Amino acid sequence: MLSIANWENRIVMKSKFIINLILIGLSMLAAYVAAKSGMWFCMAGSVLFLLFVVYKQLQLFDRCSDSLRAEKALSNEASSKAVAGERELHFYRLLMDKVDTAVIVATDGGYIEWMNRAARQIQNGCESLCPELRGVMNDGVSELRIREKMYSASYSRVMIRNSSLNIIALKDIDGAIERNKVESWHKLVRVLTHEIMNSMTPIISLSEILRSQADSTSFATDSDSVESVRHGLEIINRRSSGLLHFVENYRKLTRISPPEITIFTVREFVDGLKALFTQSYITFDTDAVCNVKINGDRVQLEQVVINLMKNAVEACDEKAAVVNDGTLYNRSVTFSVAKEYSADGRLLLAISVADNGAGIDDTALEQIFVPFFTTKKRGSGIGLSLCKQIITNHHGSISVVTTEGGGCTVVCKIPVTG
Fold it and tell me: Which of 130, 212, 214 is nearest to 170 (CA)?
């Protein structure tokens, strides 16, 4: 496209070209008339003027040629840039079509200017935002359900060429949850395989040794062989009992019954726990919310708190066993309950168990809820896994944080009635 300056330059050159043609014609006419009249001096002047105008016209031709070449070069450069821009735009569109996140660009009225492949699947061919997506743009909704799938949404507003556009990004939460579930099951299978193989391998090996000893002709009279068989059978019994205990723990983990919901107050809940934990260093901080009502399975929630309190007491005992004699260490376990509000305005009850025990290192903290993972010498590794399942069944959350200077705090958050 020509600029205004180029258009003006072209108009000026055309005007000069026409004027020169007129001057050439007039000069030729004047020279002809002067020659007919015998006015040789005037004829000579007309011819000289004619040659001058022709020279100027040739210069004008050269300028026109240079200008055309320059415009052609600019046009080629602009075409190259346009092609490169189209290629880049095509590349980014293909790139956006490959990502799992749905991206939609829409006007304030809800008309869709552009969307990627993932968004087209959600929109199902519709050229305007569905009601759920209008809620993201107008009401700031961060989570929504579209055709039985949950999405997390983010929204931003941009100005492009003096017009405002809305960008909505949707992430499939269900897909991420399913991937996490598969990963968790893979971890569980690895743990199960490891535990079973650790028990079965020595049992099989030892049984083979005992069988070969029993086949020996001197077995009946050799007291050492009889004692060896007896010792081997004790080992087999112990390992088999350990494997049976492991399987029983697995059954406990996979057979948690659905919560039987009842309504009870925090005071009633805590009174039952105080009778179980009478140590002087255990503190119960629940007075501020003692009349708050809980919707939940009281037995299961009590089991959660009992597991957490036992872990806290054992952590304090573990630290007391390793501190130096000259170091003063006072055990401390605090059970507290407080009210909180979630991001969507729901009333939550935060149940916390804090201790100043041995604490948990960062590596173990990442796996603390993995079934059968434990940092204890005689632990089963199902306590916190059971707690997490119970709290999840109550539509709550559980987290563990380390405390500066030692110890840790476990926080369970569950919705309440008021």
Answer: 130
Confidence of residue 324 (pLDDT cuts 50, 70, 90): low
Are 307 and 383 a contacting pair, CB within 8 Å?
yes
With helix as H, strand as E and coil as C, how does the chain read?
Answer: CCCHHHHHHHHHHHHHHHHHHHHHHHHHHHHHHHHHHCCHHHHHHHHHHHHHHHHHHHHHHHHHHHHHHHHHHHHHHHHHHHHHHHHHHHHHHHHHHHCCCEEEEECCCCEEEEECHHHHHHHCCCCECCHHHHHHHHHCCCEEEECCEEEEEEEEEEEECCEEEEEEEEEEHHHHHHHHHHHHHHHHHHHHHHHHHHHHHHHHHHHHHHHHHHCCCCCCCCHHHHHHHHHHHHHHHHHHHHHHHHHHHHHHHHCCCCCCCEEEEHHHHHHHHHCCCCCCCEEEECHHHCCCEEEECHHHHHHHHHHHHHHHHHHHHHHHHHCCCCCCCCCCEEEEEEEEECCCCCEEEEEEEEECCCCCCHHHHCCCCCCCCCCCCCCCCCHHHHHHHHHHHCCCEEEEEECCCCCEEEEEEEECCC
Task: Name the nearest CA neighbour of 354 among 318, 320, 311, 416.
Answer: 311
pLDDT value at residue 1? 46
pTM of the model: 0.48
Half-sphere exposure of 271 (CA within 13 A, CB side): 7
Task: Return phi, psi of residue 281, to 5°.
Answer: -90, 5
The string over 174-203, giving b where at least 16 C-beta atoms fall within 10 Å of a residue's C-beta and e elsewhere, is eeeeeeeeeeeeeebeebeeebeeebeeeb
Whether 30 has a pLDDT exceeding 90, the answer reads no
Gap between the Cα atoms of 144 and 90, Å rounded: 31
Angle subtended by helix axes 40-98 and 4-37, to nearest 10 = 160
Task: Report the range of poorest mean pLDDT among 93-102, 134-143, 235-244, 303-312.
Answer: 235-244
